[in-house]
């Protein structure tokens, strides 16, 4: 490799070149990015050519529907809900996407979010005793009336669950990597029993990197001093018993404050320890690819049980849990690179530096259309196995775990309005 006046004269692998760029930048300033080289290298490493330059990497739609719970002969109405399925069809997949306290005959506006591939939704009237009356409606309908036709109240009933999203991370940021989006896989659901109580259920499903990763979730719009208390229903933290020095999360304790004063819930300091609670014989945390191989390779990968923790968050006056949406939550991952702490967020929060400042306030250095984390509107998204990209589309050829023509990740990456159902049509190389 040769340098002249700061210009690269010979080629190297993208990751190595960007690493050198960042090292040089870090030696002179707190800003760890050198913008021009970063943009060039990321563009060359992208698994999809002709990437949609306006891509928002969004698979959900947020809407409001007005529901009139005027079911003939039913007076003890307690709730109205929006569901993604029929709870009387005998399957255990129906989720609550939005709900509101209601009374019989009184209109209620229910805010909800749904996956873009969802063709059919259901409104529900729920009585104080838990009886459900359900009616189908299309996502483009803004009003549902239960006074006539098509009300379902019989069948094999299974109570709907809380809506759950899957978050997948490519934690090499700011370096390009293999784009398998399995470095950390978390599933998140939320419910609000009342205005002053929020419950977040977090499942750590997989770890597909050998690098230490921490994680936290920010509550956008909620100030840290509006949180009265955070407790864990299971009685212990994800990384209970972790004895190594904590450095990726800036506070020792679950409740932290962002740089803007918002509430941040610390989840874990070390993903490997949190999912396995295992150390090596010579000391240190056992670092394996956890739940990212179909057939585990001895000494390299292991299959373990996913781990879940439920955070009950008591709020003070001024913050209303019932007005919060799962789609607005900001679960993010933190890792150590080049002497700095880097955060990996979904695209809507990509430019936010929540607990660490690694660009000295200059987010233009990575204000591009690359995605390093994705929100998938599914409780059981089948993420890729180790080394298999989520999807590629270069020189007219589709490949990767989600590469079925007409329903591929690559087509969606080229056009954010195309193949929005890609996440339900895996082709090969995914973890079941």
Layout of helices and strands:
Layout: E1 3-4, E2 7-8, H1 14-28, H2 35-45, E3 60-68, E4 77-83, E5 95-101, E6 108-115, E7 121-127, E8 132-137, E9 143-145, E10 161-162, E11 164-169, E12 184-194, E13 197-207, E14 214-223, E15 227-232, E16 255-257, E17 262-268, H3 271-276, E18 289-290, E19 301-302, E20 307-315, E21 330-337, E22 340-344, E23 373-376, E24 392-394, E25 397-399, H4 409-414
Parallel strand pairs: 3-9, 5-10, 18-19
Antiparallel strand pairs: 1-2, 3-6, 4-5, 4-7, 7-8, 11-12, 11-23, 12-13, 13-20, 14-17, 14-21, 15-20, 16-17, 21-22, 24-25
Helix pairs in contact: 1-2
Give a brief description.
The protein has 432 residues and is mainly β. The protein has four helices and 25 strands. Helix 1 runs antiparallel to helix 2.
What can you see in these coordinates?
- With 432 residues, the protein is mainly β.
- A hairpin with a 2-residue loop joins strand 1 and strand 2.
- Helix 1 runs antiparallel to helix 2.
- The longest helix has 15 residues.
- The radius of gyration is 23 Å and the shape is globular.
């Amino acid at each position: 490799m040769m340098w002249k006046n700061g210009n690269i004269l010979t080629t190297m692998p993208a990751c190595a070149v960007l690493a050198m760029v960042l090292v040089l930048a870090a030696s002179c300033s707190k800003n760890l990015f050198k913008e021009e080289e970063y943009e060039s290298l990321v563009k060359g490493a992208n698994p999809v050519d002709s990437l949609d330059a306006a891509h928002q990497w969004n698979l959900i739609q947020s809407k409001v529907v007005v529901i009139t719970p005027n079911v003939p002969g039913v007076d003890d109405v307690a709730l109205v809900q929006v569901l993604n399925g029929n709870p009387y069809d005998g399957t255990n997949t129906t989720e609550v996407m939005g709900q509101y306290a209601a009374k019989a005959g009184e209109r209620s506006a229910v805010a909800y979010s749904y996956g873009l591939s969802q063709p059919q939704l259901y409104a529900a009237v729920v009585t104080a005793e838990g009886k459900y009356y359900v009616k189908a409606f299309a996502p483009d309908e803004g009003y549902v009336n239960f006074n006539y036709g098509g009300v379902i109240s019989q069948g094999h009933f299974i109570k709907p669950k809380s809506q759950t999203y899957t978050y997948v991370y490519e934690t090499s940021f700011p370096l390009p990597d293999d784009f398998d989006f399995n470095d950390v896989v978390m599933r998140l659901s939320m419910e609000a029993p009342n205005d002053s109580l929020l419950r977040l259920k977090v499942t750590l499903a997989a770890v597909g990197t050998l690098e230490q990763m921490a994680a936290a979730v920010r509550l956008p719009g909620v100030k840290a001093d509006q949180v009265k208390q955070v407790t864990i229903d299971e009685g212990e933290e994800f990384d209970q018993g972790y004895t190594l020095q904590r450095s990726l999360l800036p506070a020792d304790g679950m409740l932290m404050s962002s740089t803007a004063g918002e509430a941040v819930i610390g989840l874990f300091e070390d993903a490997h320890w949190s999912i396995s609670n295992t150390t090596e014989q010579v000391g240190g945390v056992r670092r394996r690819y956890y739940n990212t191989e179909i057939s585990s390779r001895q000494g390299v990968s292991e299959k373990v049980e996913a781990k879940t923790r439920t955070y009950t968050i008591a709020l003070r006056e001024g913050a209303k849990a019932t007005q919060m949406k799962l789609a607005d939550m900001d679960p993010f991952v933190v890792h150590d690179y080049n002497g700095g702490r880097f955060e990996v967020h979904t695209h809507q929060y990509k430019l936010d530096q929540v607990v660490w400042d690694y660009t000295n306030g200059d987010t233009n250095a990575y204000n591009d259309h690359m995605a390093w984390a994705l929100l998938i509107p599914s409780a059981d998204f089948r993420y890729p196995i180790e080394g298999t990209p989520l999807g590629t589309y270069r020189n007219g050829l589709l490949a990767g775990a989600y590469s079925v023509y007409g329903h591929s990740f690559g087509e969606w990456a080229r056009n954010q309005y195309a193949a929005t159902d890609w996440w339900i049509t895996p082709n090969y190389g995914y973890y079941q």
